[in-house]
Design brief:
alpha/beta, about 20% strand, globular, five-stranded parallel beta sheet, 11 strands, four-stranded mixed beta sheet
Length: about 240
C-alpha cells in the first residue's frame, strides 16, 4: 500500500482532506496536546476532551478533575488549565480529567467525526509516535490546531518534525508537508529561539509561563500515545488498534 502523509495547517482547512481511512494526529504543542501526552504518560486513567467550558460541568458529580483554559489562562472555578505542570503523577495519576482548551480540543472534536483513528502528538512523545506511525498500514494527516483557526508556527514545526522522521516510510507528500519540514529544519537546532518569532509565544510571555513553553519543547520525554477511545483519550496500549 502506498501511504501518504499530509499536513493540515489549520482546522479551518480540515474539510478539504479525506480522512475517513487515515490516522489523524492532533497537534497543539503549546500546550494542550503536550499536557495530554504528559498526563497520560503519568498515569491519568483518561482525559475526556469537551468543546465548551460549560460541558465540563456535566461531569462535576463524577469525581473527575475539571480542567478549562481559554486564551492561555485557567478558567476561574476549575481545578487547573492546560499547563503540563498540572498533569504530574501526583495530581492526575489514577484520575480522569475533563479538559477544554481554546484550540486543541476543538481540533480533536472536528477530527474524530470522520477520521479512522485520532491520536495526540507533541515534542514530548515525538519518537514514540513516529515509531508507531511507521508500522501502521494507514495514511496520516497531521492536523495543526493553530490559533483560533489561523496558522501558527509551533504546531507546524512539530508537523515538520514528524514528516522528517517518517519520510522514508511514506510515498506521497503534499506541499504543506514540504513547507512544514523545511521550517522544522530551519528551527530544529534551537526551537525556543525560533519560536520567539511566533505570535503565540508573545501571548504566553504576557502570561509569564515561559517555563511551560520550554517544557513543551523537550524531545522524547514521554512514551505514551493518547488515542481517542469512545469519548475519552487513553493510552494507546490500553485500547486495541482499530
Amino acid at each position: 500500500m502506498q501511504k501518504s502523509i499530509e499536513v493540515c495547517l489549520t482546522p479551518a482547512l480540515l474539510d478539504l482532506y479525506a480522512i475517513e481511512d487515515s490516522i489523524v494526529v492532533v497537534i497543539d504543542v503549546l500546550r494542550a496536546t503536550s499536557s495530554i501526552v504528559y498526563g497520560i504518560d503519568n498515569g491519568a486513567t483518561a482525559i475526556i476532551p469537551v468543546a465548551n467550558v460549560e460541558d465540563c460541568l456535566n461531569y462535576s458529580d463524577k469525581g473527575f478533575l475539571l480542567a478549562a483554559e481559554r486564551d492561555g489562562q485557567v478558567v476561574e472555578g476549575y481545578d487547573f488549565g492546560n499547563s503540563p505542570f498540572s498533569y504530574t503523577t501526583e495530581k492526575v495519576g489514577g484520575r480522569t480529567v475533563v479538559l477544554t482548551t481554546t484550540n486543541g480540543t476543538k481540533a480533536l472534536h472536528m477530527a474524530r467525526k470522520r477520521a479512522h483513528q485520532v491520536v495526540m502528538g507533541s515534542f514530548l512523545n515525538l519518537q514514540a509516535l513516529c515509531n508507531w506511525l511507521k508500522i501502521q498500514d494507514k495514511s496520516v494527516l497531521l492536523l495543526c490546531a493553530g490559533w483560533k483557526d489561523k496558522f501558527n508556527l509551533e504546531d507546524t514545526l512539530f508537523a515538520g518534525a514528524v514528516v522528517a522522521e517518517l519520510r522514508k516510510e511514506f510515498t506521497h507528500f503534499d506541499d504543506s508537508s514540504v513547507a512544514a519540514e523545511d521550517l522544522y529544519k530551519l528551527a530544529k537546532d534551537d526551537l525556543r529561539n525560533y519560536l520567539h518569532k511566533s505570535s503565540h509565544s508573545h501571548r504566553l510571555a504576557e502570561l509569564n509561563i515561559e517555563e511551560d513553553v520550554r517544557f513543551c519543547l523537550q524531545l522524547n520525554l514521554c512514551q505514551a500515545i493518547p488515542v481517542m477511545d469512545g469519548d475519552a483519550l487513553v493510552s494507546l496500549k490500553a485500547t486495541p488498534v482499530l
